[in-house]
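subagent[fold] <- orchestrator: predict structure for attached chain, return tokens only, no commentary.
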Amino acid sequence: MSEVVTGEAVVVEVRIAQLSSRALAFLIDWTVQWAAIITAFVLITQVSLVTDTSLATGLLILFIVLVTVGYPVAFETISRGRSLGKLALGLRVVSDDGGPERFRQALFRGLAGFLEFWTFSGAPALITSLVNQRGKRLGDLFAGTIVIGERTPRQAPPPEMPPPLASWAATLELSGLSDDLANTARQYLSRWHQLSPGMREEMGLRVAGQVSAQVAPPPPPGVPPYAYLAAVLAERRRREEIRLARARSATASYGPQGYGVGGYGVQGHGVQGHGVQSPAYHAPPAPPREPEPPRGEAPPTSGGFVPPI
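subagent[fold] -> orchestrator:
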């Protein structure tokens, strides 16, 4: 992961593309380009039999330049930073500030790529990518771009509540459980099947001991660490879902949706509310009108003080 600062001075975390995925994407693009060059060479060779040889040679050189330079520039400009290889691997070229790649940047990358890959067989790009912290090649340094991965790694499903511990988990006091410790327990549960039995037991006892120090009451006797941590995290997630559901319902009652169709909007004080009685909203009867005081006098207050007119 790496941080980029947008034009609005907002720090955003992005996942820098690995060198292996970039190399595989380049091989896909390189194969497509060579297939286009070979096809053009065969066609132009057939044309050269009935036309001038110099014209055929000029067409071949022009087509090679269009394929080696125009292919990445055109694809990355039209698709906002993705060639065929990058599209297949889930990669994208973006600016250093996280914005989309522009034509000028794609042109710089294409011209530098012709020297890096087609002239020097990719050696400058490999060396620069290994040295740079963000894996930039020369084209990225000249253009001010980085290559990021858009596909996030697959996350493990959240732990489920063990049925025998459901009633006990409902009585837990979870306000003292910190987010960092909850994430540690979640990572342990996600890697539980990958650990050896000894490491599994050792890490489980350590993490469960830390969680039990912040959660009350203690687990029932004989509960293994895995089941205890799963019950705590499942109950924590259930309460968080309830809290979010209540927040959404409160927003629906008093927020923009509350003043919409079901509240005081279209059927209340909106289109039908001003001047037309809505069937969904019944206004209370107006209180009896009291006689107005004589002109020049203000109604007295409850304390006997008469405000000025």
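orchestrator: received. Logging for downstream: The chain has a mean pLDDT of 79. The first strand starts at residue 2 and ends at 5.
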